[in-house]
Amino acid sequence: MSIRKRENGVYYLDVRTPGGKRIRQTTGTADKAEAQELHDKVKHELWRAAKFGERPSRTFDEAALRFLQESAGTADYANKALHIRHFREHFGGRKLDSLTRDEIFAALPTVNRRTREPRPVSKATKNLYLSTIRVMLNTALNDWEWVEHMPKLPAIPGNAKRIRWITREEAQRLLEAISADWMRDVAILGFATGLRQANLLGLEWSQVDLVKRRAWIHPDQAKARRPIGVPLNAEAVDVIRRQLGKHNTYVFTRKGKPIAKWDIGQWDRAVARAGIEHFRFHDVRHTWASWHVQSGTPLPRLMELGAWSKYENVLRYAHLAPDHLAPHADAVTIWAQDGSASAGRGTGGGEDVEAAGGIVARLPEPLLRSA
């Protein structure tokens, strides 16, 4: 039989090319007549491709459906589905090979309507949308061989941003401002381990060993698709122990049930009550990394702890602890530390001033006159 109805009610087609290659895929419909029509169309295109060398003409909808099917089960599937749904509003029904670079850039979202008050979409968010459609189109070109060319979609250049982190005193104020126990405990473990929000909310008791003070994230749960070993400090152990007996599977719960979604509104209100501005939950991870660097944790060790796949991601925090560069700073002093003149110093008079660190230096007359 060329079309079959699966348990989910959707028809799947099963055909062979004139060369004998078997093709099985969903039709995306529960209507038998529509499924049969798609089946006949695919068979006809396969025959023409074999007979006349014609490449079947594919639509954006066909590519979107196959791309999401092949992406099922990936960690960022929800985001991919969101992005593809957005682009279908612009390109639904269009031939895949008719899309142009300018059209795709013009279709990028400009306003985030999921927030309480619509906000302009950042360059970083636009690049996420671009990344999804870029991967889909390149897959259609290189893997599926559905098209002969695809437009180049370079990332939108953005301005370098400061790493957003808060002090320990600010973190204490924030935790005190959080009224919900479950949210406060999740935040405490975030500050203690640097785990991403999804890993914290999805943490299971089978991933925790309180005796040996460690936890672990499985590869399929990790952003970099690699297992993460998580050492637990005393604060982390305490907050996990407080969850004992609340749920058989998950560490953190809300009203006795697993936490399906973070309460952004409640978080933002707590941030405001604490007198802190523009602090997302992901900035808890930035804060954790910043505290590590400031406390002397070597960057390679921090890379292991945070499970970053690229060293450049850790280098973002290096400027917070330039202590290892201090000896090199003395290589360019104007005067030697014993007070004698360095090469090239002028011979004018001046007055003594005490420099930071107890070093006595003499300012040249030109500097005194310009001060």
From TrEMBL:
Keywords: DNA integration, DNA recombination, DNA-binding
GO molecular function, one term: DNA binding
The keyword Methyltransferase is annotated on this UniProt entry: no
CDD domains recorded: INT_Rci_Hp1_C (cd00796)
An individual GO BP term: DNA integration
Residue ranges constituting the Tyr recombinase domain according to the UniProt record: 161-330
Signal peptide: none
Pfam families named among the record's database cross-references: Phage_integrase
PROSITE patterns recorded: CB, TYR_RECOMBINASE
UniProt keyword Ligase, yes or no: no
Domain of life: Bacteria
Domain Core-binding (CB): 58-141
Annotated family: Belongs to the 'phage' integrase family.
Name under which the protein is recorded: Tyrosine-type recombinase/integrase
Natural source organism: Paraburkholderia acidiphila
Lineage summary: Bacteria, Pseudomonadati, Pseudomonadota, Betaproteobacteria, Burkholderiales
